[in-house]
């Protein structure tokens, strides 16, 4: 079964989710590119690709650089195709971190559909549902964080992860306000997406320990391994990192080898698809570490994350990026989260969810295709 058609739709989401501090002076539309691979038997595999800042760049990479690698290939040659992308990347392509993953997801979607199995069972099932934590965005006031956490707690969601917006003194006030508001037994995490000094990170980490937060995530850039190593040695609270570490499992391996994280992160968008995510998760398991799967900021691809999470033991939660409506397009329907804060993996073949093609066509900036 070979791939004979490669189609892309650049879809406008009409969202700008960052403030000026994080956006900079460049525009940042939060678009997506929908990718469809069609085989010579008519089977279709679908994924979505992040197109933040420039959908034109994402679409061009997919059509001009990625499509020639995939067209004509047997869908079962996923490992070869995956490694071909790494060869091309090293030799002066330098893909954006979110580029190869969606192609890998579409290939896995095809293979699982051919087998007539949901992806998590095709991978090898461990469970069929996971607890959810709400992962909020950046806010300007303590009250906004508290209101958001209380809202999702009221919906039965198991925990809340804050993204405090800095500076450090503000972040610490947010941490304290959240613990006071939600009570002693509710799960809390903090992910400042920050550029803390080592001293400030130790100070904040010790506060989080006293407040019984579950983990402390990304207080530095992911490549600052010396700072992470020192922080992990200084704190008892688990430190989560590698969200943006380049080099897939090879990059994460360096972090583990240097004791620079207690929890590693991966997802099917930023860590080279299902193939890359599973490599990282299994490697982490060998070192006794959890791989907490990171949101892709796209509900459809987060379903692929869910399949991966349900096929491994060493992950605890599903990251639910909120408010959901910001990330839903172009998936049809909402994420399958129940009133008890559990998300259940779809049982249909492949990823088991569909896209809203009428919405895609109504918001389509451009459509391109290649075929053999």
Instruction: Measure the end-to-end span.
Output: 14 Å
Mean pLDDT: 95
Number of helices: 14
Low-confidence parts: none
| Strand tally | 13
Order of helices and strands: EHEEHHHHEHEHEHEHEHEHEHEHEHE
- Biggest β-sheet, characterized? 5 strands, mixed
Percent of residues in helices: 40-55%
Pairing-aware structural class of the strands and helices? alpha/beta
Our Rg estimate from Cα atoms comes to 20 Å
Sequence-ordered SSE layout with sheet pairings:
Elements: E1 3-11, H1 20-23, E2 30-39, E3 44-52, H2 55-70, H3 78-90, H4 100-115, H5 119-123, E4 129-135, H6 142-154, E5 159-162, H7 168-182, E6 187-190, H8 198-210, E7 216-217, H9 225-234, E8 239-241, H10 248-257, E9 263-266, H11 273-286, E10 290-293, H12 299-309, E11 318-321, H13 325-328, E12 342-344, H14 357-362, E13 364-371
Parallel strand pairs: 4-5, 4-11, 5-6, 7-8, 8-9, 9-10
Antiparallel strand pairs: 1-2, 1-13, 2-3, 4-12
Helix pairs in contact: 3-4, 4-11, 6-7, 7-8, 8-9, 10-11
Explain what the structure shows.
The chain is globular. It has helices spanning 20-23, 55-70, 78-90, 100-115, 119-123, 142-154, 168-182, 198-210, 225-234, 248-257, 273-286, 299-309, 325-328, 357-362; strands spanning 3-11, 30-39, 44-52, 129-135, 159-162, 187-190, 216-217, 239-241, 263-266, 290-293, 318-321, 342-344, 364-371. Strand 2 and strand 3 form a beta hairpin. Strands 4, 5, 6, 11 and 12 form a five-stranded mixed beta sheet that branches. The chain has 372 residues and is α/β, with parallel strands linked by helices. The two termini are 14 Å apart.
């Amino acid at each position: 079964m070979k791939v004979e058609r490669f189609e892309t739709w650049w879809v406008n989401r009409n969202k700008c989710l960052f403030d000026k501090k994080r956006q900079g002076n460049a525009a940042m539309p939060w678009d997506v590119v929908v990718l469809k691979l069609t085989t010579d038997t008519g089977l279709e595999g679908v994924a979505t690709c992040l197109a933040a800042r420039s959908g034109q760049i994402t679409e061009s990479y997919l059509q001009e650089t990625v499509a020639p690698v995939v067209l004509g290939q047997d869908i079962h040659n996923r490992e070869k195709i995956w490694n071909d992308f790494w060869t091309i990347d090293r030799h002066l392509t330098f893909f954006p971190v979110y580029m190869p993953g969606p192609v890998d997801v579409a290939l896995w979607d095809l293979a699982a559909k051919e087998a007539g199995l949901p992806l998590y069972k095709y991978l090898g099932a461990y469970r069929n549902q996971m607890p959810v934590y709400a992962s909020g965005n950046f806010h300007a006031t303590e009250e906004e964080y508290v209101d958001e956490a209380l809202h999702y707690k009221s919906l039965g969601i198991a925990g809340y992860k804050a993204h405090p917006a800095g500076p450090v003194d503000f972040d610490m006030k947010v941490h304290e306000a959240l613990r006071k508001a939600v009570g002693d037994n509710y799960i809390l995490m903090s992910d400042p997406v920050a550029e803390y000094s080592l001293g400030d990170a130790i100070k904040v980490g010790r506060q989080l320990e006293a407040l019984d937060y579950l983990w402390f995530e990304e207080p530095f850039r992911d490549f600052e391994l010396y700072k992470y190593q020192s922080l992990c040695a200084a704190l008892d609270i688990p430190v989560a990192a590698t969200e943006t570490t380049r080099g897939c499992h090879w990059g994460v391996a360096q972090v583990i080898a240097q004791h620079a994280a207690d929890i590693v992160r991966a997802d099917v968008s930023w860590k080279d698809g299902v193939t890359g995510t599973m490599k990282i998760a299994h490697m982490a398991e060998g070192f006794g570490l959890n791989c907490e799967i990171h949101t892709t900021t796209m509900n459809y691809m987060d379903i692929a994350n869910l399949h991966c999470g349900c096929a491994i033991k060493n992950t605890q939660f599903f990251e639910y990026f909120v408010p959901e409506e910001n990330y839903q397009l172009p998936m049809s329907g909402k994420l399958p989260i129940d009133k008890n804060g559990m998300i259940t993996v779809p049982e249909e073949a492949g990823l088991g969810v569909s896209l809203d093609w009428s919405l895609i066509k109504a918001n389509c900036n451009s459509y391109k295709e290649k075929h053999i």
